[in-house]
Write a structure and sequence with these properties.
Helix content is 42%, strand content 8%. The chain contains eleven helices and eight strands. Helix 2 (32-42) packs across helix 7 (189-213) and helix 6 (167-184) packs antiparallel against helix 7. The relative contact order is 0.13.
Length: 330
């Protein structure tokens, strides 16, 4: 092999005076949809680590050892908040209490709503320690208790954590993510801001299209698997969904199924939507013997879409199209 030492030396000298490229901070996120928003802002500068994969239960999870190390080594944690992933709050407290954390539900710009549906939290008072009535207390290292609790029916109360289903929140979160990344990596602040602005423009365009597509669906009642869609229905002026399951992981009792059937009859529901990663037989049982149409499965966490920068808009688009197709069919 022929070597050219003079050329190698010349190349080394030519780059010696150049500034080193800034390194993006190590970002850890809770769920894929947050990871997707972070990826949009980071662009080619980095890639966040997502702790919970698409098929996992956000309320009940135990970190693997490698993930625990990632939390310890994180430069920035970006997550929805303990209302969605209580196990992560405990893990951070024990593994990395000093990590910089961006809690999206706690942002002043975040529109929050309660599970009650009629008590919207526009004042944004973030006393989340008083809002955990609906949580299972699934802490890190408390796996046995978590599994036992996961099968109990429970009423959702306090703050609804599915806030990403309001596109206005998605846009606000993009800006906050860009600011948090810029504090850790000021040399790339302009790139983060530009990426966030472009992503927000894409959400605005999709939002406008969905507003038009969902207009015929307004005023029509429908059935959903569980109470996760309040932000979406509120934003688009739709009727609230009639939830079959009282909780993300609960199995409705026979009495609950009868109550749902009675509610369907009283409210004149016209569509029922299964949910990705949940048993469609429950929805089928509720609407059996009725004339209610069954729509496409809703996927509020994007379990059926590829992770990455396109996930957030894929979730909104998929949900909007499913509802428009079924509810707007009359």
């Amino acid at each position: 092999m022929i070597r050219y030492p003079s050329l190698v030396l010349a190349a080394a000298l030519s780059t010696a005076g150049l500034p080193a490229l800034a390194e993006a901070p190590k970002v850890v996120t809770d769920i894929p949809v947050v990871g997707g928003l972070v990826q949009q802002v980071m662009g080619d500068l980095g890639q966040p680590e997502i702790l919970l994969q698409a098929s996992g239960d956000p309320h009940n999870y135990q970190l693997r050892p490698s993930q625990a190390r990632s939390v310890q080594d994180a430069g920035l944690l970006i997550w929805v908040g303990p209302q969605l992933t209580p196990w992560l709050e405990r893990a951070v407290a024990s593994l990395s209490p000093q990590v910089e954390s961006l809690t999206l539900l706690d942002l002043p710009a975040t529109h929050r709503r309660s599970y009650a549906g009629d008590e919207h939290e526009h004042e944004h008072e973030h006393e989340h320690e008083h809002e955990h009535e609906h949580e299972h207390e699934h802490g890190h290292g408390d796996h046995g208790h978590a599994e036992a609790q996961a099968h109990h029916d429970h009423d959702h109360s306090g703050t609804d954590p599915h806030a990403w289903l309001d596109p206005a929140n998605g846009q606000a979160w993009l800006a906050a993510i860009a600011e948090a990344l810029s504090r850790r990596d000021p040399e790339n602040a302009a790139s983060y801001a530009a990426n966030a602005a472009k992503a927000a423009e894409d959400i605005a365009a999709l939002d406008e299209a969905l507003q038009a597509a969902l207009a015929p669906a307004r005023g029509k009642r429908f059935v959903v698997f569980h109470d996760a869609y309040g932000y979406f229905t509120e934003h688009y002026g739709l009727e609230p969904g009639i939830a079959v399951s009282l909780g993300d992981a609960s199995t409705p009792s026979a009495a609950r199924l009868k109550t749902i059937r009675d509610g369907i009859a009283e409210n004149g529901a016209v569509c029922a939507f299964p949910e990705a990663n949940h048993d469609p037989k429950l929805i089928a049982a509720v609407i059996e013997g009725t004339e209610i149409r069954q729509g496409a499965a809703l996927d509020p966490e994007g379990t059926g879409s590829p992770p990455g920068a396109g996930l957030y808009t894929a979730i909104l688009r998929g949900m909007g199209e499913a509802m428009a197709d079924c509810l707007g069919a009359d």
